[in-house]
């Protein structure tokens, strides 16, 4: 099946972001994409100072638009971090997924908050405004089972291993790495998660905006279960496409059967919730 990743240029005007995102979703569908993903923070600038201002409840304006365009195009739509979600007085970094009938199939709240300090390069603390999610998020398609994470979640190998154990063959991470962590780890982490679990891994970033207060790395990418980069964007607004070949995935798992060779008598990882 064909997967499309929309590397959107994000402005400060929510309505413009929504309109342009929906237009690119329609374009991707017209080119045969069955699963389409938007980037983290696709409808608002990224930054703790913006989260409260742009927050919505779910369902709300942004998720309604995503539901409508998913149904119109009859696709599976992964809504990036569709919005900073407000719920019960708390804010979450939340990704929603809609099916071809417009129904919401999953709602992933970012589990691991991005609190880092690299002296002289970047300091960021999502926990100043956001609360963490407390659950794994998976959804079924006629093609395969898909696991979700958001950006920093990708650094935690155990989460991806749980998804692999639960039968996911594609992991999608809307993300917005920056100019420090992007060149160092963006592709490396994707290839690691893909090889470790013999799955496809897709990451979808906002386009780079040098004038933004937080500059995203860009380079939305798809990696196959052999660890090969099979599609990669530059830094500009674009849509990249790749065909997810589940026959190739099955062949790789047969050739190197790590899933059946794990020493579960010696170690294990479990999902607690």
TrEMBL record:
Keywords: Hydrolase. One of its GO terms (molecular function) is omega-amidase activity. Transmembrane segments: none annotated. Residues 1-246 form the CN hydrolase domain. One of its GO terms (biological process) is glutamine metabolic process. One of its GO terms (cellular component) is mitochondrion. It is an enzyme of class 3 (hydrolase). SUPFAM superfamilies: Carbon-nitrogen hydrolase. CDD domains: nit. It comes from the Eukaryota. It catalyses: 2-oxoglutaramate + H2O = 2-oxoglutarate + NH4(+); 2-oxosuccinamate + H2O = oxaloacetate + NH4(+). Its EC number is 3.5.1.3. The keyword Hydrolase applies. Belongs to the carbon-nitrogen hydrolase superfamily. NIT1/NIT2 family. This is omega-amidase. It comes from Ardeotis kori. The lineage of its organism: Eukaryota, Metazoa, Chordata, Craniata, Vertebrata. The gene is Nit2.
């Amino acid at each position: 099946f064909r997967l499309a990743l929309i590397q959107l240029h994000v402005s400060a005007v929510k309505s413009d972001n929504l309109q342009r995102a929906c237009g690119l979703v329609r374009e991707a569908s017209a080119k045969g994409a069955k699963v389409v993903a938007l980037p983290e923070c696709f409808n608002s600038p990224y930054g703790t100072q913006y989260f409260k201002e742009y927050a919505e409840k779910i369902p709300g304006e942004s998720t309604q638009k995503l539901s409508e365009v998913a149904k119109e195009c009859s696709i599976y739509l992964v809504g990036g971090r569709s919005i900073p979600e407000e719920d019960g007085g708390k804010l979450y970094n939340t990704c929603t997924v809609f099916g071809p009938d417009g129904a919401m199939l999953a709602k992933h709240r970012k589990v691991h908050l991005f609190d880092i300090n690299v002296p002289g390069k970047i300091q960021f603390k999502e926990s100043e405004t956001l609360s963490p999610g407390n659950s794994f998020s998976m959804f079924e398609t006629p093609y395969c089972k898909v696991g979700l994470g958001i950006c920093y979640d990708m650094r935690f190998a155990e989460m991806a291993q749980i998804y692999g154990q639960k039968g996911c063959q594609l992991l999608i991470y809307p993300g917005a790495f920056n100019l420090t962590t992007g060149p160092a780890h963006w592709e490396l982490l994707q290839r690691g998660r893909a090889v470790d679990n013999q799955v496809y891994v897709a990451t979808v970033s906002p386009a780079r905006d040098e004038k933004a207060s937080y500059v995203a790395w860009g380079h939305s990418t798809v990696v196959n279960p052999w660890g090969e980069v099979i599609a990669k964007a530059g830094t500009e607004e674009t849509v990249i496409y790749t065909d997810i070949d589940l026959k190739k995935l099955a062949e790789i798992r047969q050739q190197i059967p790590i899933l059946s060779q794990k020493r579960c008598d010696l170690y294990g990882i479990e999902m607690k919730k």
